[in-house]
Design brief:
The chain is mostly helical. It contains three helices and two strands; from the N terminus they run ααββα. The chain has a two-stranded antiparallel sheet.
Length: 111
Amino acid sequence: MRYLSLLLLGPWLIVLAWVYWAALRKSRVAWIHKACDLATIFIALAAAYGCALVAYDDIAIQSVGNFGRESGGIWKQVMPALYGYGAFAAVMVVGMAGRLLLRKRKQAPQR
């Protein structure tokens, strides 16, 4: 059950990584841009994996009360997915901003 949230989140993260790769295809002229984009994607996937595992370990299992288990057991799977998606999105936003800044700096007129 530890990796269930990653299995459910994985296909969506792969689609988002493909969108990132496809969106910057036209501005990828040098090998350094390709390497930077690949590094961003791999770092984002690793951050999502790591944060999801940390979130799974940090969620406390609720105790059984007088009327059975309290609601909230689903959070053991939801929180890792949220943490993983948040980490993935944060790395991708930083990567996208870095690529846009790099492109603007390169296109700036030289004096």
